[in-house]
Amino acid sequence: MILARDRVAATRAVAYFLMAGGAVVGTCALLVPGFAGGTTAGVFATVVTGGAMVLAGACCRVLPERVPEPFWVGVPMLGVLIIGGLNLATEDVSVSAHLYYLWPLLYGATFLRQDLAYLLLAAASVSDAAVTFTLQPVKVGVTDVAALVTAYCVLTVVVTKLRGRADALVAALEQQAMSDPLTGLPNRRAFDRDLAAALADGRRTGAERCLLIIDVDHFKTINDTWGHATGDKVLVQVAAALRSAAPEGGASVARLGGDEFAVVVAGDTLAAQRIAALARASVADMTDLPDGLPTLSIGLASTRATAVEPEALLAAADRALYDAKVRGRDRVSVVETAPRRRPRTVPQP
């Protein structure tokens, strides 16, 4: 993975750098005497280069998703070469000529992986030193090169470190936004994302996907009788039971809210029924309330029986859950046919 940040944002940043740089180069070649070496050929070559940069930038701005992966490293590297070539061709070692190297360096430090950002830093430093020592005596240019390379290093290191810290904070916030603080399970937002991804994968591969909606029976009574601390304990134990029942990589568990949980199963109805049975057995083994063990009502729907849109599958599982409650709770109800048909209750052992 070349990029450390969003692909579209990185490509658009390249677009802005290319368009701005191309416009500056072309304008200076036409309006600043001696900028392109003072020859017609130099002016023509510089204007063409600037125009190509603007065109490439416009393409990136319009079609950021179509840019191939090597482009993200290739463009700033090419930018370093172009800057060095133009500085050499125009025999320009002024401060403004050196400052152009900051553009690709800033991009690399902001968007590229740290090792690639440092590789770009090395390329810019070598290019700037080569041009400076070619156009100036070593004794004259060494001070400039030392100061500029130090500035390039400070810029790259500071920006990459700040970016790393910002990325870590964003990752922590995303984790908090996607997690239920009580049980540690993914929350409803994460469930919606995981369900959509699972169904999209099922459509692509033709594999069956199932959804379990789980409700703790008489949870309000547990809260009212034994207090919310006991109710929270029950929810934590149910979450642990669902985690232990769901195979790693084959199912994702989430808390939808209150006493309702969901399991997205990458498998058929039989696999989902096994998870439901294991979860119910695990709850019976783990939970200890003075008036007995809590039980689970579970609704099961599969993509073989319903439309593959998330809303349709969720609605079917909700209907199956309602059927399980109507039939006395503590059971699993399965939707096996079209959504309008009545769910079938799995015989209980």
TrEMBL record:
Is Zinc-finger included in the keywords of this UniProt record?
A: no
InterPro entries hit by this protein: Diguanylate_Cyclase, GGDEF_dom, Nucleotide_cyclase, Rev_trsase/Diguanyl_cyclase
TM segment ranges: 12-36, 42-63, 70-89, 141-159
The protein's matches in PROSITE patterns, at most eight in alphabetical order, are given as: GGDEF
Know the name of this protein?
GGDEF domain-containing protein
What are the UniProt keywords, alphabetically? Membrane, Transmembrane, Transmembrane helix
Would you name any one GO CC term? Answer: plasma membrane
Per its UniProt record, what SUPFAM superfamilies does this chain match?
A: Nucleotide cyclase
GO term, biological process aspect, one: cell adhesion involved in single-species biofilm formation
* Organism lineage: Bacteria, Bacillati, Actinomycetota, Actinomycetes, Micromonosporales
The record's GO molecular-function terms, alphabetically, read:
diguanylate cyclase activity
GGDEF domain spans which residues? 207-337
